[in-house]
Amino acid sequence: MADSAPPSAPLLRTPLHAWHAAHGAKLVGFAGYEMPVHYSDGIIAEHKHARSQAVLFDVSHMGQVSLWGDEAVRALERLVPADLLELPPWAMRYTQFTNEGGGIIDDLMVTNGVGRLMLVVNASRKPDDLAHLDARLGHAVDIALLKGRALIALQGPQAAGVLARHAPRAARLSFMTAVPTRIGRVDVVISRSGYTGEDGFEISMPSEAAEEIWRRLAAEPEVKPAGLGARDSLRLEAGLCLYGHDIDEAVSPVEAGLAWSIGRRRRREAGFVGDARILAELRGTPARRRVGILPEGKAPAREGTEIQDEAGVPVGTVTSGGFSPSLGVPIAMGHVEVRTADIGTPVRLIVRGEPRLARIAQLPFVPHRYHKA
Amino acid sequence: MAGLKYIKSHEWARIDGGVATMGISDYAQGQLGDVVYVELPPIGKKVEAGGQVAVVESVKAASEVYAPIAGEVIEVNAKLADDPALINRAATGDGWFLKLKLANPGDGSALMDEAAYAKFIEGQK
Predict the structure, then answer these.
(1) Structural domains present in chain B
(2) How do residues B78-100 score in pLDDT, each as one tens digit?
(3) A298 with B65: Cβ contact below 8 A
(4) Distance between CA atoms of A178 and A15, rounded to whole angstroms?
């Protein structure tokens, strides 16, 4: 077997690193941080626990960014295609920072924190995002990367029941809303959101309180810790994009199947970076689309696998590929030419030089179970 | 387990009467995590020592598996098709990959024994 390459730079640690190390985590480098990929139960058990009960993820490596100032909302709208002006207090939106070419610099969550906007961005994109925000908005808006905060995700069908014992107001939120509240004596901000397709919450707190809150939640009988391995397999089953894989600086939100996140007013008025390409693709058809792919047989098709049509002509590439613990079969997502993007279209995946049959499949692979009021 | 020989890429072989049974080490399965798929070679395939002979896939990634010793594939473990997690449960037992008829009976003396391999992986941690 081939060994993985050693990390090139010293890895950062989250405030929960010591807890992970003491509780059987296998730690790996991810986006510059040393993070748990799984604990002693393994990825499949953690994944199934998230679908049946509840798991805790440490996602403190993600960037929490605050924007404030009178023009903050209008200013941020210049960088994203979401409608933020109509965002009610403590509501949140999924959106993307777009570049001049209509590609995606990062995808992010934006919450109307009343008096400030609260952003959660990908760990790997923090430097690029901050540089982009400073360059474009620095003259008009105050911008701060909140280095002293941790972020924990509690995900699964039992998450609300668990959270009701610690933060009852948060347990009554509906999907994609947030509330400032307390757990014990700690001020936290809790949103009903996540990256698994399950009901769940993300809890932002001061770093020094992270271990206390993590311990409280981990002590609940329904809850187990889960690592980035299960987080990845859960999001793939849920058909959610992973930055740097399914979306990047060349892929537009329309190609990526994220047009639902582009506000109606924004389509009419434009006025965001990259609007020319994105609005043209909305009016017409993009060259390629992100699709789900179900391989026949049991061999997973990994990222980078070539996708061909039935005649053997290349039509695209797998962007995320692995194994679905819930379905017990391999699943994948990829970008394909629009002519082969319809659900049910037979395609061939070139795995280790051998063509293997597959079909374009409906996303998500496992239905979302969000708590919509 | 006594009688196993190892190579640095974490495969093991048990040599008996000109035939080597092989698989991946318990350390290797622990590093991989949950195994979800194994691609085994056709019967009759000839491999060199250190040549790729199989592929093992965990939830996260695919890894190549190398032959500890030169030979011809004479049997593969059919149970792995339906139950690849056998490799996690019994890497050096029921989770064996395949059997090689040795190209050169007598090969294998250069492989690491259990103690040498244990020392080798200690040095990798």
Answers:
(1) 5-102 (2.40.50.100)
(2) 999 999 999 999 999 999 999 99
(3) no
(4) 23
